Amino acid sequence: MCAFVPPAAVAAVAPLSSSAPSPSWSWLNTLHPTVMPRQNGKVAIVTGGGRGIGYEVVRQLARLGAHVIIGGRDEQEGLAAVRRICEEDKEAKVEFRKLDLASVLSIHQFAQSFKERNLPLNILVNNAGVMLVPEGRTGDGHELHFGVNYLGHFLLTWLLLDLLKSSGEHGDAARVVNVSSSAHSIGEIRLNDINSSYHYSAHAAYCQSKLAQVSFSSHLHQEMQRGGFRVNSCAVDPGMVNTALYCHLWTPLRMAQRVIARLFFRTPAEGAVTVLSAALSQDCKGGYWSNGHREMTSPAFDPGLELNLWEVSMQLLGLQSDQ
Ligand SMILES: NC(=O)c1ccc[n+]([C@@H]2O[C@H](COP(=O)([O-])OP(=O)(O)OC[C@H]3O[C@@H](n4cnc5c(N)ncnc54)[C@H](OP(=O)(O)O)[C@@H]3O)[C@@H](O)[C@H]2O)c1
After folding, report:
1. Helix axes 152-167 and 303-317, enclosed angle (nearest 10)
2. What proportion of the chain, given as a percentage, has pLDDT over 90?
3. Contact, 248 vs 190, CB < 8 A?
4. Where are the beta strands (DSSP E) in the chain?
5. Which residues of 234-246 are buried (b: 16+ CB within 10 A; e: fewer)?
6. Which domain of life is it from (predicted)?
7. What is the residue with the minimal CA distance to atom 38 of ligand 1?
8. What is the dihedral of CA 227, 228, 233, 234, to 10 degrees?
9. How far apart are CA 61 and CA 66, in angstroms?
């Protein structure tokens, strides 16, 4: 952690820093940074915040005065991210904590050590993700896309939910922001083969995990509203963003993608804009966010499927509702 931000030391709103680390030629897909409210006194966790979109979310939240914890599995990358942010802004309050979303044990340890610090938790950004990875399993036997992108975040959120509920009681409602993708729209949740054991397609597995995030987000939001808790949960599509996420593409496709991405994809800073809008907007009411705002029409949510997925996830993780 590099420094503490004196509370309420600055104006109520601040423009997002537009000094993106690399220049963008993405003239078709550009999202401009916007004005966001100060976040002094707020605490945020961003998973996978060591690089890519997550890094930019961390950087901007810290710049707005929030205390930000990067949850990631690569310590070197995480600490380098903290150093870079602190070099840029001596006041930034950022730290790295180890979190491997492919391990139930690591998620429990991360949540436990965070709770022991008696900090509030105002914003949880479930951002970490993998895409098109070769067939593989988490330490607990779940298909990698499903396990890391969805189930790991489900568990993390569940373990931190009481803290989110209590933190949302005063001031702004707490937020859970699930970084999904437009790929959710072609996803299918196969409850009878959730771990793709009978048939594996990396593409289908990624899309399923992103649909599962949207579904989880919607169900959680409704549960929180029903229970009268001031916790909003939303799903976000950051757009096509030029990051390392595409590193598992088939090599010729990867080479083509690199050229196309430099021309047409968003920069990570632009990709972070919608995530930040959902995390910080004062009238966030859940839903699905893309292109910097809440979509008027949500994707086709299916309450029956949402409930089934929720119950299956609880069973897979050995959780009970009254925990
Ligand atoms: N880029 C796009 O075009 C795009 C489009 C739609 C949605 N998204 C979503 O945006 C999110 C961020 O992706 P990105 O584009 O910024 O990709 P990225 O640069 O590859 O970042 C992914 C982050 O997730 C972390 N991560 C992966 N596996 C993990 C694990 N088991 N435990 C903890 N952290 C783990 C990575 O850290 P490691 O160093 O440990 O791997 C990295 O920090 C993802 O959820 C992705 O699906 C991206």
Report:
1. 100
2. 76
3. no
4. 13-15, 35-37, 43-47, 67-72, 93-98, 123-126, 174-179, 231-237, 288-290, 293-294
5. bbbbbbbbbbebb
6. Eukaryota
7. 74
8. 110
9. 6
Per-residue pLDDT at 186 exceeds 90: yes
227 alpha carbon – ligand 1 mean position (Å)? 32
pTM above 0.70, yes or no: yes
User: Which residues constitute the domain of residue 248?
Assistant: 38-314
Q: Give the sign of the dihedral formed by CA 45, CA 49, CA 55, CA 59.
A: positive
The verdict on residue 274 lying in a domain is yes
206 among known catalytic residues:
yes
**Is 214 domain-assigned?**
yes
Domain of 288: which CATH number?
3.40.50.720
**How far is ligand 1, taken at its centre, from the CA of residue 202, in Å?**
15
Q: Which of 26, 29, 47, 51 to mutate to test the pocket of ligand 1 (most atoms within 8 A of CB)?
A: 51
Contact yes or no for 247/261 (Cβ under 8 A)? no
Average pLDDT of span 214-240: 96
